[in-house]
Design a protein that fits this description.
The protein is α+β, with helices and mostly antiparallel strands. It has five helices and six strands; from the N terminus they run E-H-E-H-E-H-H-E-E-E-H. Helix 2 runs parallel beside helix 3.
């Protein structure tokens, strides 16, 4: 039987990725913010990476920024600590953050599933997307329009 599951994550060229990544419209949700440096350093430690390995900004977006219990601002540390070992391997997460292949996800979720505050463990149901130097979210129509622009230049 053929797999009819719709893919939401696509490898893209650097040119397409730059147009998506640089667009303010590429992140859904009311707020857009960056992971603080001290939490980026904690991510490196969690993933077993040398200090200062991650240099690119780690963006997030959502309808709320803070944990409803402890008021900590949710960021990539929460994403990594929620996923490492249970959803994805630390190696895979490091490759997503540091790799060279560019990916665009067109799912634009209502919330990132399984996300918990790394401080108090409370579920955080309001993070809509995240992006780094090679991973971003975009509405599918935006990706189609960009691909059309890129293809027309050839």
């Amino acid at each position: 039987m053929e797999n009819k599951t719709k893919r939401f994550t696509f490898p893209v060229s650097d040119e397409v990725f730059k147009k998506v990544y640089d667009s303010p419209a590429s992140l859904p949700g009311k707020y857009k913010w960056l992971t603080p440096d001290e939490d980026v350093r904690a991510i490196e430690k969690l993933l077993g990476l040398p200090a200062k390995t991650i240099g690119a900004p780690l963006w997030l977006s959502g309808d709320h920024k803070n944990c409803g219990k402890c008021r900590r601002e949710i960021n990539w540390l929460d994403i990594v600590s929620s996923a490492a070992g249970s959803v994805h391997s630390s190696k895979m997460i490091a490759e997503i953050i540091l790799g060279e292949q560019k990916f665009v996800n067109t799912e634009v979720p209502h919330a990132i599933e399984g996300l918990k505050c790394s401080n108090c463990g409370k579920d955080f149901p309001d993070l809509r997307s995240f992006k780094c130097h090679n991973w971003a979210y975009a509405k599918e129509a935006m990706v189609k329009a960009i691909r059309g622009t890129v293809n027309s230049k050839k």
